[in-house]
């Protein structure tokens, strides 16, 4: 029977399943091999950008998908809509969440829940914040893969919002597409899903955190760590407390600073890109905002960063800074 799904009977929330008749252009491509469990794609989208990314994920994974909708549809009038979005985000900061029409009874069938949203005024769009708030206990212990679209703004504030709304979920690397990168949705989604799949298969100690927090001038953003002996040693050091590093710019491509400790090296010929975290010569911590090729140890990647501008934005631009690392 189809009534045994995780969606509350009598509720309007029904997932679009891959075989659904009338499904348009979403013929599944080759599903990724060796998928460990089932996935659900949740998204909210007002002008279709986030929805396009959601559909691409669903096409690759051949999984269920559900739109998270506000209880009261947004105004067609653009300015009225902007005003309401601002009011809702202000209310959320006071702990008052807008009503959403979408309710999922349980997520038992799903290991990974993809959560997609547009950035509104630097934040996660209000309907998705309200949905996560209402479903935090059902999402505990699930793997959450965030994806977001924006005009140009970064996603680190919204990642922080998601992590505090769902403190007991495990967060993967984030996918962020901007106006400039939306046309590359297809290859970027595919590459991202392959990385998620690889990390999922690699993780021998799933209870171990793979998230690093970086704080610059009071703002915190996150990175997803690689699994190697270098990051293991770094995590052991950070388990004892945060580590602050004075960093300066080098070669118009990176910030570099001394860790004050030596970590095991896992050097390989590597081409870096914006957001890559690198261990250089065992004792220097490097944050890349541009590309370079060298024999490096990869430590991880800043979440949701695709471009030099986005990485420099998180670092407060070019110039000397103190970065504090914590788990
Ligand atoms: C209310 C509102 C606020 C927005 N705020 C931002 C913002 O702060 N930064 C940004 O880069 N884009 C902002 N945008 C643009 C959207 O994030 C962007 O167009 C996104 O891709 C829309 O996704 P959608 O088509 O799925 O709704 C905003 C859009 C709306 C409607």
Automatic annotation (TrEMBL):
The keyword Repressor does not apply. Its cofactor is FMN. It comes from the Bacteria. Pfam families: Cyclophil_like2 (PF18050), Flavodoxin_4 (PF12682). Residues 2-36 are annotated as: Disordered. Keywords: Signal. Residues 39-197 form the Flavodoxin-like domain. InterPro entries: Cyclophilin-like, Cyclophilin-like_dom_sf, Flavodoxin/NO_synth, Flavodoxin_CS, Flavoprotein-like_sf. PANTHER family: EXPORTED PROTEIN-RELATED, FLAVODOXIN-LIKE DOMAIN-CONTAINING PROTEIN. This is Flavodoxin-like domain-containing protein. It comes from Alistipes inops. The lineage of its organism: Bacteria, Pseudomonadati, Bacteroidota, Bacteroidia, Bacteroidales.
């Amino acid at each position: 029977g189809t009534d045994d799904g995780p969606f509350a009977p009598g509720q309007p929330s029904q997932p679009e399943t891959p075989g659904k008749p009338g499904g348009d252009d979403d013929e599944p491509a080759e599903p990724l091999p060796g998928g460990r469990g089932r996935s659900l794609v949740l998204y909210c989208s007002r002008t279709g950008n986030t929805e396009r990314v959601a559909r691409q994920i669903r096409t690759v994974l051949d999984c269920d998908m559900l739109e998270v909708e506000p209880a009261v549809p947004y105004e067609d009038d653009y300015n009225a809509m902007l005003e309401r979005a601002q009011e809702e985000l202000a209310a959320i900061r006071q702990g008052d969440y807008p009503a959403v029409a979408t309710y999922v009874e349980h997520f038992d069938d799903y290991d990974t829940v993809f959560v997609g949203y547009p950035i509104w005024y630097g934040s996660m769009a209000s309907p998705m914040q309200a949905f996560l708030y209402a479903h935090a206990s059902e999402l505990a212990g699930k793997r959450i893969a965030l994806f977001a679209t924006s005009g140009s703004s970064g996603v680190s504030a919204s990642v922080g919002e998601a992590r505090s709304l769902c403190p007991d979920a495990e967060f993967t690397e984030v996918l962020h597409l901007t106006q400039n990168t939306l046309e590359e949705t297809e290859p970027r989604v595919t590459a991202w899903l392959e990385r998620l799949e690889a990390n999922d298969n690699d993780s021998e100690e799933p209870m171990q955190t793979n998230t690093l927090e970086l704080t610059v001038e009071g703002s915190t953003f996150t990175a997803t760590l690689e699994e190697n002996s270098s990051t293991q040693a770094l995590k052991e050091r950070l388990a004892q407390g945060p580590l602050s590093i004075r960093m300066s710019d080098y070669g118009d491509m990176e910030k570099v600073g001394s860790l004050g400790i030596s970590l095991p090296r896992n050097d390989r010929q590597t081409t870096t890109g914006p957001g890559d975290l690198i261990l250089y010569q065992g004792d220097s911590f490097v944050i890349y905002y541009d590309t370079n090729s060298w024999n490096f140890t990869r430590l991880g990647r800043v979440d949701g960063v695709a471009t030099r501008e986005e990485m420099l934005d998180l670092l407060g631009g070019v110039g000397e800074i103190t970065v504090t690392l914590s788990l």
